[in-house]
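Curious: can you check?
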Amino acid sequence: MSVIPDYENESLSFEKRAADLVSKMTIEEKVSQLVFNASPVSRLGIPSYNWWNEALHGVARAGVATVFPQAIALAATFDEDLVHDVADIISTEGRAKYHEFQREGDRGIYKGLTFWSPNINIFRDPRWGRGHETYGEDPYLTGRLGVAFIKGLQGDDDKYLKAAACAKHYAVHSGPENERHEFNAVVSQKDLRETYLPAFKDCVKEAGVESVMGAYNRTNDEPCCGSKTLLQEILRDEWGFKGHVVSDCWAVCDFHKHHMVTKTAPESAALALANGCDLNCGNTFPNLLLALEEGLITESIIDKAVFRLMVTRMKLGMFDKCDNVPYDSIPYEKNDCEEHRRFNRNVSQKTMVLLKNEDNLLPVSRDRIKSIAVIGPNADSRTALEGNYCGTASRYVTVLEGIRNAVSNEARVYYAQGCHLYRDKVEGLGEEKERFAEAVSAAKKADLTVICLGLDASIEGEEGDASNEYASGDKRDLKLPGLQQQLLEAVNDVGKPVVLVLLSGSALAVKWADENVAAIIQAWYPGAEGGNAVASLIFGDISPSGRLPVTFYNSTEELPDFKDYSMKNRTYRYMEKAALYPFGYGLSFTSFEYSDISINKKRIKPGENIECSIKLSNTGKMESEETVQLYLEDIEASVSVPAWSLLGVKKVLLKPGAKKLVEFNVTPRQMALIDNDGKAVIEPGMFRIYIGGSQPDKRSWELTGNTIKSIEFEVTGETSVELEY
C-alpha cells in the first residue's frame, strides 16, 4: 500500500500540507510561484494558476456574468445584508465559471478564484477617478460594507473558501492617478488611524479577508508594497493577519523606476518580499533568484511567502477531490441565471438616490403621460450602466429602454442624444451643438422630459484605462463635462417638467440644476438592469431609499489641494462649508417620523456600552425602506475630532401607518477619539447621539425639513483610558 505525501493528505491541516509541499520544491520552483501567472510544477501535481481576477461588482473581464451596480452605488444602499448577498452571488458565478473553464483547460487571466476586490480606500476627494470603485468617504460605512462583501464572497464553510477576497489598496491611496507610481502620501498618525486604516482593520480582524493588496504610492516615504510599517508592524504584528499580500500591478518595479528607494530590480524584489509582500502582480519577483545570489534575501523568507500562497490555494480546494469541496458542485447554469437578473434589478432599485422632488413631481402616473422625451448622452448608453472592472451582461437595459418598457404602448417616447458626453460635437464633421435642436424639439413635443447626464468610466477611472483626453482618469473639476450644462439649460427653458438623471460614480457640482430643475435622481453606474430601476423610481413602482455615501460639494473651488492627504476640510466629518447635498442624504416618496429616543444610561464608566433606541413610524401613503442613521458627537474632546461620525445604520421596511422600535449599541471603541499620536482614547466628558434619516447638519434639515433627534450621555472619570486600536 503506497503512502501518500502529506501535502496530498486531506485529513491534515492546510498549514501542514502547505509546509510539506514547499519543502519539496526547488528554489526555482518556489520563485515561479511568487508571480501572478504562477508556473506549473508537474512533478508535484501543481497546475499553473493565474491569481489575477476581479469581482468589484460582478465577475469581471471573463465574459458573461451578472453586472451589478458599481461599488459606489452599492454603498448608496447603506445595506450590509444586501451587499453580502451581492457578493454571495458573485462568488457563486465565479465558481460556476471557474469550474467550467477548468473543464475546458482554460487557466488564463481572470479565470481563477482569487478576486482582487473589494476596494476599501476612502473616497476623500471627489476628483479621484477611481472613487466609484469604493464604498464612499466614511470609514465606518466602508468597513461595514467591506466586511459584508468579503464574507459573502468567501462563503461560510468551516473548511473551504468559496472564493478569496482581497482588501485593496493598502493604504492611504486615493489619487491623483497620473502620479500614483511616484507619489508620497504624507499623512499624520491621527488621520492614518482615524480615517485611512479602520476599514482595512475591520476587513482583516472581523471578516478574515484572505488577501490584502498594497498600493502604488508611498505612505510617509515607504512604498506601500514594501512598507515595514504597514505590512509587518500594523497588518501582521498588530492585527494578526495570516493571509497573503499581493502587490498592485507592476508596483514593485516602481521602487527603482519612480520612487527611487532602490536602485535595481533585485533590490526592489528583496525589499518587497522581506517586508511581507508575498505575490507580485508584475514581473519583478523573478529577480529574487539574483537577490538570493547577491545576499539581499534568504531562502527562508521565500519559503514563507510560498507557504502563504499554497495555503490560500488549498483553502480554495485546488488540491482536493471535487466531491470533498462543497463549492465544486455549483453548476455553470447558475451563472447569469434569471434568478440573479431579477435580484440585480432589485439591487439597482435600492441604489437610487432622490436628490430633489419639487412639488412632488415624482412619481409620475403612467396614465397621465401621453408622451415623454428621453434626452442626453447617457440616456441610451450601456457604458454608463457599467462602471469599470465589469463583466459582460447578456442583456443591458439603458434608461431609454427602461422607460420604453415601463410606459404603455400608446405613449410616445421621443429620444435625442443632445450632445456628446464631453466633446463639443457628436459627428466628426458636425458643428458645435449639432444635436441641440433635436433635443429641444423632443422636449417641446413631450409631456415630461427625462434628461440623462453625467459621466462614464471612459473619463472617470483608472490611469491607463480612462481616456487620456480627460486627466488620466481623474476629474479636473466637478462640473458636467462638455456641453451638458448648456444642453440642460436649453431643455429646461422649454418649460415642461424635467427630471434630471445623473449617471456618474462621483459627486458633481450641479448647483444650477438644484436651483432650476424640478427633480433630480442620482443613479450612479446602476448595472445591467439600471434602466429598469430608473424607470421604476420615476413611475413609482418603488420608493427610493438610497442615501449619498459621498458629499456633493457646491464647487471645485472649495476643495483642498488634491495632493494634500490631510483630512482637514474633507468629507462630511471635517468639512467647513455647507454641502450642496450632504453625505447620508436622500428623499423618499413617503414620510417617516422619529420619536421617543432613549438610552439605557445617562452616565457611564469608561468601557461600558450605551444602548439606545428610537421609534420609527411611516406616516406617509407608500410602503418604503428607511435608512436609519446613528451619529456620535464628542462634545468635549481635547483634540480636533470629526464634527460627528456615522456609527450605526439600520434598514427598516415599513408599510403606511406601521411603526418599529429601532435599536443600536454604541461601544467603548466607538466612543474613543484618536489622539495626535494615533492612539485610541476614551476621555471623560459629554457625548451626543443623533438618530434620524440623515446626518444632523443644517443643510440636511433644509432639504428634508426633518429635525434629527438627539440625546446626551456622560463618560465619567478623572483620566482618559487608552483602548486597543
